[in-house]
Write a structure and sequence with these properties.
420 residues, alpha/beta, 7-stranded mixed beta sheet, 5-stranded mixed beta sheet, 14 helices, 18% strand, disordered N terminus, binds nicotinamide-adenine-dinucleotide
Length: 420
């Protein structure tokens, strides 16, 4: 299996390093800095699950609440063999700054289970999910901590969590999770929200840089929820998606890949590999393709010190969380690559999650176009807020986004007077 993830730095160390850079630039008070930097709660759970062969297998799971200063913790649940507590802590930390960047009233959380759902049956995944939901039950709730889907979890997994939680209360509580099926109180537009938000920030970036989207060459690493929707919207707006990859391989067509057909191919075969009218390339070749826009939409740390020098993109839109290591950041910034940082670029998902939670709380549901319009407003306003800091303070876009998020969390913390 191709794997471009050479982990040169643990994701949590990267999150802490990025925090320090932004906190230094903000000249943040030492007391506030220490109060907002570290996760508030870290829960580790062991999940015994009866497998289809009758044996009991124990999985390890985590739920981390990094911050509740601005509202309930909010963040997805990841099922993946490489999930570690440090990865979940890093992802929870990014959620705190992300919710603050788009100015929604949530803190940051994240969850994960170390497992390989690709080798499990649906029934095994359901048993694991219900066990995990029970184990993290004391932490979650519509006013406490609201999970959502992340890598290899989906709306069905959210439905099982909502059901498990609701069973303990005796009545349905849709607001405990977002990313639910529409029939259970999900929001129209949630499924495509992350990809749509990536697209909205790319529109703003192209306008700022004077790069026409029409005819722009695009490479997308990871063709799941975030990557495929972003690719689809770029393709519909006359950009050329010339390279695409997933965990099984990478494909290339210099004249542009037909994205709607590729989506059907992936649905049928489970992978982008073998798509007609494309040639197979290596993950290294994919990342180094000459292009206007590179969208890493898979996992973290995939662009690092070793492969960053060979990147030839003008814009990197971080659909994934933490795809660049701090070293890659420095190399690419020095090369003049415009980076739309993850906590801004992929914030469309959590923004529509917030809309879903609001709709659940109000029992009043919005039309899809209403969701898209509100999302576009939030994404473009946030992009401009970050861009202003980038231009005025002469810092990279990532530091600018972190400065915006961290300053809002610092302000909330100071106003609440949480001092010892
Ligand atoms: P997903 O499971 O739908 O898709 C992940 C994709 O990445 C799959 O196509 C998989 O095959 C591919 N992949 C895995 N390893 C790879 C590798 N080594 N090389 C190339 N491709 C690889 O997940 P998703 O929801 O699209 O999430 C992708 C990223 O976006 C994650 O970092 C996630 O945290 C982030 N994100 C997702 C959302 C959301 O709402 N879905 C929101 C914010 C951030």
């Amino acid at each position: 299996m191709p794997n471009t993830a050479v982990v040169e730095k643990n994701a949590y160390d990267s999150a802490m390093e990025n925090f320090d850079l932004a906190a230094d630039a903000l000249e943040l008070d030492e007391n506030v800095r220490n109060m907002i930097k570290y996760p508030e709660r870290v829960l580790t759970v062991v999940l015994p699950v009866r497998m289809d062969n009758g044996k009991i297998q124990c999985f390890q799971g985590f739920r981390v609440q990094h911050s509740t200063a601005r509202g309930p913790a909010k963040g997805g649940i990841r099922y993946h063999p490489n999930v570690t507590v440090d990865e979940v802590k890093a992802l929870a930390t990014w959620m705190t700054w992300k919710c603050a960047v788009v100015n929604i009233p949530f803190g940051g959380g994240k969850g994960g289970v170390t497992c390989n759902p690709k080798q499990m049956s649906q029934v095994e995944i359901e048993r694991l999910t219900r066990r995990y939901a029970s184990a993290i039950l004391p932490l979650i709730g519509p006013d406490q901590d609201i999970p959502a889907p992340d890598v290899y979890t989906n709306s069905q997994v959210m439905a099982w969590i909502m059901d498990t939680y609701s069973m303990t209360k005796g009545y349905p509580i849709p607001g405990v999770v977002t990313g639910k099926p529409i029939a259970l109180g999900g929001s129209l537009g949630r499924n495509e929200a992350t990809g749509r938000g990536v697209f909205n920030t790319l529109e703003s970036a192209c306008e700022h840089l004077g790069i026409p989207m029409k005819g722009a060459k695009v490479v997308v690493q990871g063709f799941g929820n975030a990557g495929s929707i972003a690719a689809h919207l770029l393709d519909s707006n006359q950009a050329y998606v010339i390279g695409v990859s997933d965990s099984k391989g990478c494909i290339y067509n210099r004249d542009g890949i037909d994205i709607p057909k590729l989506m059907l191919h992936k649905e049928k075969t489970g992978s982008v590999v073998g798509f007609p009218a494309s040639e197979s390339i290596t993950p290294e070749q994919l990342l180094s393709l000459e292009c206007d826009i590179l969208v890493p939409a898979a996992l973290e740390n995939v662009i690092h010190g070793e492969n960053a020098p060979s990147i030839h993109a003008k814009i990197i839109a971080e659909a994934a969380n933490g795809p660049l290591t701090p070293e890659a950041d420095r190399i690419l910034e020095a090369k003049g690559v415009f980076i739309i940082p993850d906590i801004l670029c992929n914030a469309g998902g959590v923004t529509v999650s917030y809309f879903e939670w609001v709709q659940d709380e109000q029992h009043l549901f919005w039309e899809a176009q209403d969701v898209y319009n509100r999302l576009e407003r939030v994404m473009k306003t946030s992009f401009n807020d970050v861009l202003k800091i980038h231009l005025v303070r002469k810092v990279g876009m990532r530091t600018a986004a972190n400065m915006l998020g961290i300053s809002r969390v610092a302000e909330a913390t100071t106003l609440r007077g949480l001092y010892p």
